[in-house]
Amino acid sequence: MSAYRTPSGGRIARSRPLKFTFDGVAYTGCEGDTLASALIANGVHLVGRSYKYHRPRGILSAGPEEPNALVEIDRGYGRVTPNLRATQVVLFDGLVARSQNNWPSLKFDVGAVNSLFAPLFSAGFYYKTFIGPRLLGPNWAWAKVYEPIIRQAAGLGRPPKDPDPDFYAQTFAHCDVLVAGAGPAGLAAALAAGEAGARVILADEQGEMGGSLLSAAPGATIDGKPASAWRDEAMARLVALPNVRLLPRTQVFGYFAQNFLGLVEQCADHLAHPDAGRPRERLWQVRAKRVVIATGAIERPLVFPGNDRPGVMLADAARIYATRYGALAGRRAVVLTATDTAYDAALVLKEAGARVAVIADVRATPGEAALAAAKAAGIDVRTSTTIFETKGRLRVSGVTLASVRDGRLNKGDTIACDLVLMSGGWTPSVHLFSQSRGKVAWSAEANAFLPGASAQAERSAGACRGTFVLADVLDEGWRAGAEAASIACGTPASARAFAVEAPARSATGILGACPMTGATQPAFVDLQHDVTTKDLKLAAQEGFRSIEHVKRYTTTGMATDQGKTSNLNAMAITAENTGKTIPQVGLTTFRQPYTPVTFGSLAGHNRGDLFDPVRRTPIHAWAEAQGAAFEDVGLWKRAHYFPKAGEDAHQAVARECATVRTTAGVFDASTLGKIEVVGPDAAEFLERMYVNPWKKLEVGRCRYGVLLNEAGFIIDDGVVGRIATDVFHVTTTTGGAQRVLTMMEDYLQTEFPDLKVWLTSTTEQWAVIAVQGPKAREIIAPLVAGIDLSPAAFPHMALREGKICGVDTRLFRVSFTGELGFEINVPANAARGVWDRVWAEATKHNACAYGTESMHVLRAEKGFIIVGQETDGTVTPDDVGLTWAIGKAKRDFVGKRSLTRPDIVAAGRRQLVGLKTQNPKRLLEEGAQITAQPSPKSGTPALGHVTSSYWSPALGSSIALALVADGRKRMGETLHVPMPDGAIAVEVVSPVFVDPKGEKLNG
Amino acid sequence: MLLIKCPYCEMERPEIEFRYAGEAHVARPLDPAAQSDADWAGYLYLRSNPKGLHFERWHHVHGCARFFNVARDTVSDRILATYKAGEPKPDPAALAAPEAAP
User: Fold this and answer.
1) Per-window interface: A 690-719 vs B, CB < 8 A
2) What b/e sequence results for A862-873 when a residue is b if at least 16 CB atoms lie within 10 Å of its CB, and e otherwise?
3) A113 vs B22: CA distance, rounded Å
4) Which residue in A375, A525, A701, A927 has a CA-CA distance of 20 to 30 Å to A295?
């Protein structure tokens, strides 16, 4: 048996030993242990190094509030979790734990020299370190000196390197009553609500429910039974109730609007060999009609010099380790307290075999019962006494006491010890209440902030609302549960009284620091972030008054523990420093989550292949078989180019472009957005939405449509064809499909409800096969039936309905390449068959398949814009030379009014132009800035920027499109594109590089 | 996550089915051409952004696809009423009346 394990007692199974390692050293614990209790049973207190100063730190607490004992748990590949609180890590056989933030070892940590440089790390250090010699440039000191040092030195655990191999479940749940916390108040509430027939969820962070009843005083009885026996019966009753769901190992971490709560359940980490089908964690998203908050209270540390040494521990934590885990935190204890409950801890430790050298009480008059009990046990009690300093390096070895008289300290004797228990009183855990946006209220009587006015359907019960006497706690819990069930289910509330015998101790204590005049050792307020009383004093001296500012300047309460043990003391010290009362200073806001939550549980299954849906066209498999390279366009996978053997991307695109211009190419345009606009007012609707006129568009003709927002800027474009008087086939950009439909729906529903129009997305119903190039007609002619393809019968910008390969088609004669072109719309389920036949014909003419890259080059050679590339939400039709598309006679359309706004008609707007580099081999960078001078002075505004840039196989040179101030007046001018290796001279030219008269279109 | 009652579906659905769509009761002028530059700029860009009661549009994008109006308190996040597009703004005094104590 481990050296510090008591021979009997507690809730651990001494007959079931568990092996584990900490920093490579093998230890043995018992089933029922936490990592912290097992370490304590082995006499290990030194478990970590502090955040800034690398000071040795031990285990402070026995619960989720732990600021010091943060460890890394290694369960093998990808299962390394940093920053876990050893007080919450359930021990299992083979557990591997490591300490953090030390090098080369926990016992000898080089980083501890930081303590010598404590001034460097004082309050606000990271603001001050920005200031350095200006001559060396802004931020020189930060970038070259401080940041590297601080990054190296400060910190917590290391993030895991490997992908997380586990999976995480998520579930939604509804209930009448959610009870957060399964201590005495929570158990009573769940019993009351459960027996009333309400659907209850009872969640507790620990594997074993019962809270403080699991470590109750031996003599405590409820309804005549020992407290632990009463707990066992209550649990049996709850298990038997089918309407009660028990969620052990489940932290209620967040309370959101409308009684929506986030819970995270640990499903696997407590097991030595979890089976593969088990999620690691499960996120519960619970909508509760009523919530009972029974989250208990957290013991406050005392702030005294040298209060951070390993072996300095919260008094009740030591009591819990002794009673619940049979682990003795030390052999010779000194108790420093400001509350009566610590006397019980001293008595328990004495009973368990430790010596209690002295109880030093900073108060002048302890509670009589507590004092009498200590004296009866023969413990030396000294009132008005504090600790002046502590001794020991890796473990406390002694304390020097000082008596306090009228605020002055008289140094007393030094007492050897290996354990210092401290208690400043109890802080009700109002976190969830505060998260629910309830207002906390200061209670002078309780010396604490307690739940005040509720904002949501909840009630607090027990220690979290300042009730500490067990009888009252049970009573309050029952009433909260009964009332919640009554409101949620409309049944009368039942009453129940509990007969309790237990020592009643006052839990009020002091807030703030102990007297420490003349002391030299640092007194820590926030142990996790290494914030001392000096830091808080400095913040006050430097003018920080608001607790919100003090918090951010000193970082007190901003560590991963969110100041669970430190906030009240920091607030009280700030009150004293600034001459305010505690309620005047007030609390900072409590934020979700209560304890850290893994990204895994929040992400659930939405990762890897399931992170985003993938959209594939009906031609996708064909392109894949051809060896196409794909690119992501929104959620779509689009064929980027089709390299032949030995070709690189550049060569493939050059070949594809040349083939389209000389013979023909086939292109999968299925991703185009499509909206069927139908109804007697369809033309009028489009008239109001698009800049173009539509009413006179003949059936069987199409038009290039431009869509603006009300601010007058281009947001989408696409060809619109008139299928019938009351049917339009609208196409949108691939990325804009949903956005355009939403915008159309918005106007139709809210601005133009007078119009009889129906909108249907047909993006995935129609596949589109574009055949472009001089041979396009010859390729499709053998396959088309019922449509006269001759140029006279079927001119450019016309559409016909008929058959292709026996399949219904809407055949558009349109071109995004400048060549003779057709876009074959066929039902998606028939598309692959049609594609194969088109491809067979295409190969007879030595035509190629081309991808999106060639599509981009071909359209850029023609000066056709891409919305989102040439436009960025600040570009008008006139800016890109599309004024011709606007229906001049139209009274109104979306965005029309804005086209006469002063800024839109002002001179100097950036206009679409072409650019040719003086060196035709030189390619510009998209996004590069354009200037009048090759090396303009710093601060000179750019004239514009490059929007598209390609190698043009047709011209045998580079080409670019650009937006340039007054660009159309600059034709022939030489401008410059400054780059890191020198400016590139460019000539401003027309954006239409190929076939400026558009003769090829009409072939 | 908020529960929002879609006035068309007539049921409460979780927030993830909806998308926010800006302030409500900002009607497009019937004759934009008659608007002064300043008035038109106001229609385009000026919104009330109140602390407290806010009338706003929501789009039941993963449901019935309808746009509707919501009266929401921007401080408490409490939804006080939902109603169909085109229906008049509810009386703020009636909405501001405190709900039954939680």
Assistant:
1) 710-711
2) bbbbbbbebbee
3) 56
4) A525
Closest by CA position to A536, among listed A562, A504, A513, A505: A513
Q: How many CB atoms within 10 Å of residue A921?
A: 9
What number of other Cβ atoms are within 10 A of residue A856's Cβ?
19
Contact B2 A257 (CB under 8 A): yes
Q: Rounded distance, CA A257 to CA A158, Å?
A: 34
Using DSSP bridges, classify how beta strands A332-337 and A355-361 pair: parallel, antiparallel or unpaired.
Answer: parallel
CA separation, residue A722 to residues A301, A700, A701, A800 (Å): 78, 6, 6, 10
- Model-level pTM? 0.90
- What's residue A118's pLDDT? 67
Tokens read off for A456: 């949501």
DSSP string, chain B: --EEEETTTTEEEEGGG-EEEEESS-PPPS-GGGS-HHHHHHHHH-----SSEEEEEEE-TTTT--EEEEEEETTT--EEEEEETTSPPPPHHHHHSPPSP-
E strand or H helix at A348, and its extent?
Answer: helix A341-351
pLDDT tens readout for residues A406-465 = 889 999 999 999 999 999 999 999 999 999 999 999 999 999 999 999 999 999 999 999
Which residues does chain B have within 8 Å of residue A891's beta carbon, measured at their own beta carbons? 33
Beta bridge partner(s), residue A293: A180, A460
Residue A980 DSSP SS3: coil
ipTM score here?
Answer: 0.96
Q: Which residues contact A271 (CB under 8 A, 6 or more apart)?
A: A92, A278
Q: Please report the pLDDT score of residue A128 as a whole number.
A: 64
What pairs with residue A292 in β-bridges? A179, A459
Selection from A950, A868, A969, A974 nearest residue A910 by Cα: A969
Alpha helical stretches, state H, A711-795: 737-746, 776-780
pLDDT tens by residue, A206-219: 999 999 999 998 78
Task: Say what the alpha-carbon torsion angle A311, A314, A318, A319 is, to the nearest 10 degrees.
Answer: 160
**A892 in B contact zone (CB under 8 Å):** yes
